[in-house]
Structure formats: C-alpha cells, structure tokens
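Hi R.,

Here are the chain sequences for the assembly we discussed:
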Amino acid sequence: MKEPMKARVYVSFKSTVLDPQGQTIHAALASLGHSSIAAVRQGKFFELTLTPGVDRAAATAEIEQIAQDVLANPVIEDYRVEIIED
Amino acid sequence: MKFGVVVFPGSNCDHDALYSVSQNLGEQAGFIWHDSTELGLVDAVVLPGGFSYGDYLRCGAIAKFSPVMAAVKKFAAGGGLVLGICNGFQILVECGLLPGALIRNRDLKFICKPVELVTATANSPFTNRALEGQKLTFPIAHGEGCYVADQRTLDQLEAEDRVAFRYVNNPNGSARDIAGILSRERNVLGLMPHPERAADPLMGSVDGLVVFRSMVAAFACAG
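And here is the predicted structure of the full complex:
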C-alpha cells in the first residue's frame, strides 16, 4: 500500500537573529574536542502527514501558508517546505 | 472604569492582574474567557502573564489564534487600551499588534527577580502618571524575554517615542535595553516586567500601580 504523502517543514532563526541555544551547543561540542565544528544553529522540524487523496499542488500551497502563518514567525524565522511522496 | 482580564489555558497572572485593579485600585474588573468572541462592556483589556497553551510552538503563538484575540484586535483598532504583560506581550508581538519578537533570554536561564526600569516616556495612557526618567522596580519572570527587531523597526520605535520602559541593567539581552513598547497609536502597551506583582504593599513594592493609575487617568480624560 502506498504511504501517505508527507510534508516536512524546517524552521530556523534568520541569520541575523542571535541563537544562544546553538551557541551553547557549539561551546559544548568544543569542550568535547570537536574542533572541526565552527558554528551550530538550532531549529525546529515538523512532519505533517496529509490526508490520503489530497492533491499535491493544493497541499503544497496550503503547507506554505501554514508554515508562514503558524509554524514560523516570519519576523525572526525562515522556513523551508519539502513534500515527500513515495 | 472596567478592566477585562483575558484568561487563556495556562494563564497564571490573571488573578494577580484582577486583584491589582479591583483591590489595589478599586476599579471594576472581570475575566474574559479565551473562547469568547466578544469582550463585553470593558474599557481596557489586560492580557496577563503565564504560559498560554503551554507556550507550545512559540510563546504566544497558539494564543494568537484564540477567538478572543480577534475581538482584542478589533478593540485595539478602535482605540481601546490593551495592556499585555509578559506572556501577554509575547501574544501581542505574535499577533502583530506590536512589532518585533521575544526570544530565549541571552543566557538561556529563566529569570525571576525584581529589576529596575527607567520610564522612557510619560507620553502614553500607561505612563502618564510617571515622570520621564523615573526609576521603577517591577519583578520579571520569564525565559523568553529578549526583545528583538530589525534595526529599522528599532530606530522607528525610538523616533516615534514608543519605548515605554527600558532595563537599567539589561537582564535578558533585549535590543536597546527595551522592556516595554507602545503601538503607533499608543493605546497598546506590551512589557515583560510585571506591574501587577508590584501593586500591593505586601509585595514589597507598589511601583506597578503607576501603570494602572495612568490607564484610569487616560480613560477619565478621554471620557
């Protein structure tokens, strides 16, 4: 049986917004000896499962809207949407 | 004057706000449930502190879609006084009634302590009973109180005299030491410190009463 279509939404702070959590993780990595890591930025990841039979183009537009209005705060965050269908 | 205090699931300073205006000030006050689509007959709205909807997603992000918020937006657009304290401030920036955003404190810690503020403008319905430059001590209690906005917005806030309060010793990394800001029409104030927790002599300070007294004075003046 075909897997339901899913959307993945990645939300992260804009490059201009300070990310103290990412900085703290970076400092922890540095203290563990991971000198090859130059910086860490923390973000959020959402997986949305679509109702079977939903049209891909319509779903893409709707999820863009959801990301813009709900999942991300465009004042401080950027987002990226991926649609997964297998 | 009648104050309406909005109650979201997870609000926890709603009773403090109601007590301040009713017991400490002697004004009328009532609660407004987040599910209601009307505010009823109120002259001012308070969005209280707390953790509305568990602060899930982002602080204030779910609360902004509450039915009551459409009514609050309409009330603000008509010139009604709206005071957002702590989580209330986070809701006001999320729903766009105030610019910018509030993110995790610079040092990642939840900070709960009295802080000294300076009144940055007396020209507002929330600060008209204070003097510009007057120092006030209000408690803060937040993990996400670092105010951020782009340079243009920050410049505009300052040019339009819309910074109401600044921190004397910035506790959370807020841009330009901002603790509270006004809307363009000056009828909406959002601030992270808690005036309602400094409104009864038993609490050690009554500095916060100046905010509520200013609102009463502004309302009397307008009425």
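The mean pLDDT of chain A is 93. Helices of chain A lie at 20-31, 56-71.

Let me know if anything looks off.

Best,
T.
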